[in-house]
Amino acid sequence: MKVAVYGAGGVGAYFGGRLAQAGADVHLIARGDHLDALQRDGLRVESVSGDFSMELPATDDPADVGRCDVVLFTVKSFDTEAAAREVRPLLGDDTAVVSLQNGLDNETKLAAEIGREHVMGGVAYIFSTIAEPGVVEHTGGPTSFTYGELDGARSDRATRFLEWCDRADGMDAELSESIQTDLWEKAAFICAQAGMTATVRLPLGEIRSHEESWEMYRRLIDEVCRVGRATGAELRDGTVSQWMDFADDLGADSYSSLHYDMTHEKPMELEALHGTVVRRGRENDVAVPMNEAVYAILQPWAQRNA
């Protein structure tokens, strides 16, 4: 199986590296100093599940890679449209472009550029980032992702990719028949974790220790769930309590990528997260005051960092 990782950062490079270990033909698409290091020294992954290094072909031009069976699309949400316009050299008739991005509406933007028939939705569960150019640091999380066709079909191409994922150590994959539900469920958690750590600018442990802050965390999850249901996603009744239990077990020093980007003067995924929830809430007449508050507080930072 030939796999391209478009946006070979913490998420994409980790899963791409694991698939390469299993024998897949993996190509990394990156840019800047990170690309230079990948080409010069290869990929190095420092992982709580076991470190590994490998040399993989890396480029900033999809035309160098050519047609693939699967494209793991792992760019930041604010780069979705621009990156989607560059994907076409990777596409064959049956190529699947699997979005493993934060936020909502990434799949819609992808489909508008390359055609809905090529797009699969996906959600990744892993804590990893680029520690330095060419080096991915995986600090925790389940190292798993869920993906599926947008219409819920169990396609041959999705099944073939799952077989390859099952061969790989250090990662798990699940094929979903309701990926829209999965996307909204993950967004519910991210909006709470990212929204609270970025606005409070303190780690999760201190948020949990204050009743009012912990209640706002819960309400953020609940609001996203209600908006998701209003759009037609069939979220489970226990989603809020499940995520609260999950967050209660996270390390007290946990932050979020949104907090990291804000404090390191990097572009932020605010629009794909709270911005989309606010807009979808208004479209479906669902009140989302907690998400509106987070969006209002972080907008100046997002504009400054952009």
UniProtKB/TrEMBL annotation:
Biological classification of the source: Archaea, Methanobacteriati, Methanobacteriota, Stenosarchaea group, Halobacteria
Residue ranges of domain Ketopantoate reductase C-terminal in the record: 179-299
PANTHER family associated with the record: 2-DEHYDROPANTOATE 2-REDUCTASE, PROBABLE 2-DEHYDROPANTOATE 2-REDUCTASE
UniProt protein name: 2-dehydropantoate 2-reductase
Highest taxon of source: Archaea
Function according to Swiss-Prot or TrEMBL: Catalyzes the NADPH-dependent reduction of ketopantoate into pantoic acid. Catalyzes the NAD(P)H-dependent reduction of ketopantoate into pantoic acid.
Family membership noted in the UniProt record: Belongs to the ketopantoate reductase family.
Record-listed E.C. numbers: 1.1.1.169
Limits of the Ketopantoate reductase N-terminal domain: 3-151
